[in-house]
Write a structure and sequence with these properties.
The structure is a homodimer of 678-residue chains.
Chain A: H1 11-20, H2 27-38, H3 50-53, H4 59-75, H5 86-99, E1 104-108, H6 124-129, E2 137-141, E3 145-149, H7 154-160, E4 167-170, H8 176-183, E5 189-192, H9 199-211, E6 215-218, H10 223-227, E7 240-241, H11 244-247, H12 251-264, E8 269-272, H13 275-282, E9 284-285, E10 298-302, E11 307-310, H14 320-324, E12 328-331, H15 336-345, E13 349-352, H16 359-368, E14 371-374, H17 380-384, H18 388-415, H19 423-435, E15 440-443, E16 448-451, E17 475-480, E18 482-484, E19 487-488, E20 491-496, H20 502-519, E21 523-524, H21 529-532, H22 538-541, E22 552-554, E23 563-568, E24 582-585, E25 588-591, E26 595-598, E27 601-607, E28 617-622, H23 640-657, H24 663-672
Parallel strand pairs in A: 1-5, 3-4, 5-6, 8-13, 11-12, 13-14
Antiparallel strand pairs in A: 1-2, 2-3, 7-9, 8-10, 10-11, 15-18, 16-17, 17-20, 18-19, 21-28, 22-23, 24-27, 25-26, 27-28
Helix pairs in contact in A: 2-4, 8-9, 15-16, 18-19, 18-24
């Protein structure tokens, strides 16, 4: 598995090379460090971690480090797919539980930060069950076990999980609470890891256990981790400064202003557990989880603007501490507990977010005597409202990204008709176009490349088993995005391969009408995304159609492609849309076994003055720039204002993207963006 | 103040008359009974209460009872308007507080049932402050006092409340919590009556008191009641059966089915504190509060379908106990406390609704040892989903009501142009038309009759001080409704007097477009009113306009004109719209100092099959039948589907109402409902 030819030549040789390169580490330190490196997800630059060992490593040292890392990687099992030995793993967990006097254990997909993307070490659910989806929960009792997933994953769970070990349940239709109430024996002790649940999330599980006559028991250390002998180490990926030219605002300014807000609310400190909050607040980026440049860690923000940062220093690239400055005090991760204890002993009022911080945080603070203020993460809203520099950055990123997508669409129009192009090949071609872009760092999520019926699977990922050829007469849906230093992108286009049916055109046009109704909406300051969600649906509703996902999620600035606190969804959300927020506009329609349609642009909230307006009005500026397939639009269904919107959008795309692409693409683009209106 | 010429001739005479009439009461019982009668709001039939004393009272007895009641009424002060002696009242309350060692006391507008309409006895806020609005809260400390009202009432509170006694605050902009935190002295004990607050409502007040270094203290008896020496008695208004031909469903059927639901949820009993829940569940109606036929009382519904009803038997018309049947056990109101204690001693699981039941209920249940299940009132949803008989009833009621409103609009078109008609005269004429209707029992709220700028006051009530003449060139807004035995109505029409301006037509048309967008919407089963609210606003938003109230409230069946659990509002509501729910559709626009526009129809949720639909779709059937002023519609702003909707609605109105009105009205109606489309 070695990435280069060289084998590890032993500690003595390496010790010398390290000293020569001026590394702070000796050979004895490497085992731990490289276990962490091996425990990080694959990075776009697979050798970036070498900087952490020595910034001036010569070729000989590099070769030795590569070899050592390869050895470490071979020892750790990164879980994924249907594992043959889940039966043995479940048995090992059950033995561990029995030894601890537990009747069962709850295994969520979450990590200690409750994020959507987690490090390999935190893929406990995948290790135990084989299920690799991005959300789910398993419960293992001695006599029974179940895995709970949402509607996106009912098919996948059936493919990946051994039905003899786990019953699979739909998480809202047959929730874990009902299963616990039925299956937990009276007097049963159901264990959970308080690091992997929020206090809000535990409440209903606790009641369910009580209903069964049992109880929920917090485990001081995770019994699954004890059973998982080759569990990856906590990830060590480089943490770097994120420069002012991208962030637009000094970390010290952010910290001082947030600290003052805490002081005004008579709060002494806030515990920050969301890595994207840390990244935003401290203007740093990392690589501890896939697809999002997150540095895993915790922080305490004090009302005076000082920060205690609990993060493994070995992740820091040279110069990072200087970038963090004097008011950010770095501590080892295991120092978080005593720090919370000291806040408690000082009877401090400490804020933590019950929707995102682990129950462990609340338990520890309360036990130590702190007055816990349950309130939203103070970074969430200022992070969501991008400043002028961030907006300018995302506009630039969207131009480059739009050029890559446009090149892909032009390429597709040439190649897809052959019937020989597969979903995976198409996605790889799109990836190639993107990789060449300036400031490209990663994809922002795994590309969804779905032809025909695969397009109807909302969170489809093409695998060797599912990979389909793109055929004429079908629709092809591609949802993809990238992480650029100056912005995060996320775009979906649906393309007709050959001639679409009248039904496809009708339904595509209704999705487009919803996209336009939302994109062109004006709304008063104070309006939430929940209020606007229906605008994207009414054209579908009129035909008895709908889609079972939200209409828009927040998007970060070289951060999460999904971020809060706002969203456009029928699920009630009380956060008003504010100027500078970025959100997706992505209505869709899915015909199971037939085709999928989704049209997704990112938009940003802007002031939208209206002549004669009696109140301040807001609207959206569309950031995403790539053509929408005109051949799928049924003009008879379009109102004149809708046609005008589409034509104006296409004119913008042509003007912005045309100069960035090659001649053949430019020609295709000109045709693809010509007006619908005669 | 006597209503007839006769004076009370003494107990001996009356005793004889009572015996002769076969009354169960002696003269000695009359004082208490008639104090209660005097404590009830004025009824449409002012002598209905005589039945409670003797169902066959002769003229002589009637005269004596009238005289006695008049004496009782003279002794009780029904509060209202700016009372000259609020200073003395505040002083009396402060003395009472001092005696009890309290630093202050919280006086909400609520009664023990948290309803919108309360009995005269519960008008504590009006008595203390002079403020007669339907929502508000006062806090009296020894050195300071404040009254908190919402945006509807900022003007009214300034007119009614003595600024030297109370500072007036906007309840959301300067909330009571902030005032408490600033003004309650450290160590202060702030009293509250646990009967007049929900546990949910108390939480933030409790935190505010703690923030000031003080505490909230529950008062076993209300100190304001002690200071209010001529406080009206608890109301005694006749409680009658509500017949099966109106309810469509036996009480025993309702009770059995709800009891089974409780049993399925492993709940032993539910405490019902909402009088409309009692009225619906037991198929009874009363008259203890104005404008809504509510019988005040409490009930415990058991899982076996049996009910303990805590209600003053003296309110029952003859035969009511037979109507209630064997499984409804009637107890005096003071037996509620021991009944809750028994539930606690039995360790029962008892449901109570933390959003509508008094904190007292929860405190008592918890103290007695019950397991309290905090969940929604189990009657709310089945009450909201009207059955076929109720829907047929409300359709009939809306035809009769529509005829009265149409007669009024025709009459208005003839008389309003003179410039001599006042708002109060217009409202009185409308009331006259309604009173003549079959099955009419009351108005469902005080009519809003607002000309010109008064129309811009959303909850305007014309008083002798505010009464305006209706003038040419102005808009006139009338929002009114009635209680019929077969249904409750609520309609708003806005009428141009003379020629409207272009702006009026533009804004009216935008309100109409919102009304139509909502009224014509199709939506999938599971959709909430919160999701639909924006449909009624987008046409206004596009012009930078909006309105600051919800778009739709639930309406009862000969019950509250405002009922839950559903509503159409930007405020998040998680209750899906279900077939049979009645809800208003009432977008508006208000130009302060200029004019008000509101178009309100009641609609009911119906199945709305769509050809080719992939899921079950719902829509609205409009119940309200009266013309919408065509002269205010700007055809250029109307999309063809909108014009078609209006023309179809008007055709329905003409067909349904034409045959019910006189010839002159019918002629006016034909013109008022002619199609807009050429």
């Amino acid at each position: 598995m070695s990435e280069s030819g060289a084998a590890y030549q032993g500690d003595e040789v390496v010790e010398r090379l390290l000293r020569k390169a001026g590394s702070p580490y000796g050979a004895a330190d490497l085992a731990g460090l490289l276990a962490g490196v091996a425990g990080a997800p694959e990075a776009t630059d697979p050798e970036a971690w070498i900087d952490l060992v020595a910034s001036n490593a010569g070729d000989a040292l590099k070769a030795q480090l590569r070899a050592y890392r390869a050895e470490m990687a071979a020892k750790t099992a990164i879980p994924g797919g249907r594992a043959a030995n889940t039966a043995a793993r479940v048995a090992a967990l059950r033995a561990e539980l029995q030894q601890r006097g537990l009747s069962g254990f709850i295994v969520p997909r979450s990590d200690e930060h409750q994020g959507e993307y987690v490090s390999p070490r935190a893929e406990r659910l995948a290790w135990l069950t084989g299920f690799t989806g991005s959300a789910g929960l398993a419960i293992v009792l001695q006599q029974a076990a179940a895995v709970f997933v949402d509607g996106r994953y009912t098919l996948q769970v059936a493919q990946q999980v051994d039905g003899a070990l786990f019953v699979a349940r739909h998480v809202t239709e047959q929730p874990p609470e009902a299963w616990i109430a039925e299956n937990l024996p009276a007097g049963g002790k159901l264990g959970y890891d308080p690091w992997l649940h929020t206090p809000d999330g535990l409440e209903s599980l606790r009641r369910a256990a009580a209903r069964a006559g049992g109880e929920l028991v917090a485990c001081a250390d995770n019994p699954l981790d004890a059973a998982w002998t080759d569990q990856p180490a906590a990830p060590i990926a480089p943490v770097r400064p994120h420069e002012l030219r991208y962030t637009g605002r000094d970390s010290i300014d952010k910290r001082t202003s947030l600290g003052a807000r805490l002081a005004a609310d008579k709060v002494d400190a806030a515990v920050l557990t969301a890595p994207d909050s840390l990244a935003w607040l401290l203007n740093i980026r990392g690589g501890d989880v896939p697809r999002t440049p997150l540095p895993l860690g915790f922080a305490v923000l004090h009302a005076d603007g000082a920060v205690d940062l609990f993060m493994d220093r070995r992740k820091f690239v040279p110069g990072l501490e200087a970038h963090l400055g004097n008011a950010v005090h770095v501590h080892a991760p295991d120092q978080l507990a005593p720090a919370l204890d000291r806040l408690g002993q000082g009877k401090r009022r400490v804020l933590a977010d019950p929707t995102s911080a682990a129950a462990w945080i609340f338990d520890r603070l309360a036990a130590a005597g702190a007055e816990v203020v349950r309130a939203g993460d103070p970074c969430a809203l200022p992070k969501a409202c991008k400043n002028a520099v961030e907006i300018e950055g995302t506009r630039a990123a969207h131009r480059r990204d739009g050029a890559a997508v446009t090149r892909f669409l032009a390429w597709l129009s040439e190649h897809a008709g052959s019937g020989k192009l597969s979903e995976i090949e198409a996605a790889e071609q799109l990836a190639q176009f993107r990789r060449g872009n300036e400031l490209f760092r990663d994809f922002s999520f795994d590309t969804i490349s779905g032809a025909g019926p695969n397009g109807a699977i909302v969170h489809y990922r093409a695998t060797s088993a599912s990979n389909r050829l793109i055929r004429s007469g079908e629709l092809y849906l591609v949802d993809s995005g990238a992480q650029y230093l100056d912005g995060t992108t996320d775009i979906t286009r649906t393309v007709a391969i050959g001639a679409p049916t009248a039904e496809m055109r009708d339904h595509f046009t209704r999705v487009l009408k919803g996209h336009i109704a939302l994109g062109a909406a004006r709304f008063p300051r104070g309006t939430t995304g929940s209020q606007l969600d229906a605008l994207a649906r009414t054209a579908l509703w009129a035909a008895g159609l709908d889609y079972d996902h939200g209409t828009g999620h927040g998007v970060g600035s070289y951060l999460g492609v999904h971020e809060g606190p706002h969203r456009i969804s029928k699920i009630p959300n009380r956060v008003p849309l504010e100027v500078g927020m970025i959100v997706s506009n992505e209505p869709g329609f899915y015909k199971t076994g037939g085709y999928g349609i989704r049209i997704e642009n990112l938009v940003t909230v802007v002031e939208a003055p209206v002549e004669g307006a009696e109140r301040p009005m807001l609207g959206f500026e569309t950031l995403t720039l790539a053509p929408i397939d005109r051949t799928l639009v049924e003009p008879a269904l379009m109102a004149p204002v809708e046609t005008a919107w589409l034509d104006a959008y296409h004119a913008r795309v042509a003007a912005a993207i045309g100069p960035l692409v090659d001649g053949a693409t430019a020609k295709w683009l000109a045709a693809a963006t010509r007006p619908l209106a005669p």
